[in-house]
Amino acid sequence: MTNVNSNQHPDVKILLADDSKMILSFVSKLLTGKNYEVGLFENGQELLNYLSSGNSGDIIILDNEMPVKDGMSTLKELKSNEILKKIPVIFLSAITDKEKVVEALQLGADDYIVKPFNNDEFFARLNVHLKIDHMKKELIKNNLLITEKNNEIAKELKVIQSQREKLMEQNTKLLELHKFKNNILGIVAHDLRNPLSFIRGMSELLESGILGAMTDEQLKNVTDIKNVGNNMLALVNDLLDISVIEQGTLELTIKPDSLNNIIEERIKMLKMPAEKKNMTIHFNAVRIPDIPMDAQRITQVVDNLISNAIKYSPLGSNIYVDLKDENKIICFSVRDEGPGISESDITKMFGEFQKLSNRPTGGESSTGLGLAIVKKIIECHNWKLDVKSKVGQGSTFSFFLKAEG
Q1: Structural domain for 295, as ranges
Q2: One domain for residues 274 and 393
Q3: N or C: which end of the chain has fewer CB within 10 A?
Q4: Which of 247-256, 348-357, 369-378 has the highest mean pLDDT?
Q5: Which pLDDT score is estimated for 7?
Q6: Counting Cβ atoms within 10 Å, is residue 266 exposed (0-12), middle (13-18) or buried (19+)?
Q7: 116 preceded by a cis bond (ω within 30 of 0)
């Protein structure tokens, strides 16, 4: 006899095998009264046939002594099946022999209840095993989810690792190309410096008249040659500087020197190009003690910042050069009345070969390397470089360092 009552509690199905119809009826009423779904079987073979047909249950209650297939034999078959062995099994038997109880538990039974039984105790023990089984299923479910997530993470990590390896390979190639570029720039710039110096020197001699008088047109042509030569030589020098800096071979000669003197000398040298554009350079400085620095490189920085102000400011404007010592922080700044710099230009202006929106106001040339060199030199001194600018309101370039003592 196989009787499955599926109208009570679809969440929990209890399978009961007992050769006593009275026990089947009594226990079935107890269970259905608690809203459990119940399956009834008169022997172990009926139960096994039911399960082998693809059906299942949440807990099995077995009598020991049954015809066709008794409880112990049924238990052995249940526990030998990879799927069925996970279902909790409770023995419900009149046999009180301790050896039988031990045998059942050793074969894999989860509990052993002796007939006649107390109803409250029966349900208490039944509920314990149902809870244990529920926790096992949840644990298995969670483990499966964790395994699935781990597999997903492993796949993602594999993809990330593959991308990382590709990026490293690309970076290696880029570094090699970058090094090759710097080597080529260094070689080309070095080879160009001597002939350009010769061209500039000869054009200056011709311009001076030492080599003979020239017509106005000839003099103009010589002056143009000299200016082009100067621009080319400036580019070559910048290329050599960038090549040295990027290869990490820039050597600074650090010794105490006067920042005041450097600034004053550069302002004197740049006074003429400023006056050609009817500009006025206003210099305001406090006297500060000599500071450790590479004077040649800092001269390069000061020259570049003031030259840029002259180059990009409108004709007839003012340039303000300041040197201050505020709370042991020395600040050099160059402020102009130029067009200002957009935020997008500020983000890229210290890169190499950057051409910004603003153009020189007097037709001057620009290598696009000056500010990149300035930034590198200031960083090599462990000083701080800053720029403040708003479109239409001019710009201020500054560098800062801590005063000695």
Answers
A1: 255-402
A2: yes
A3: C
A4: 369-378
A5: 45
A6: buried
A7: yes
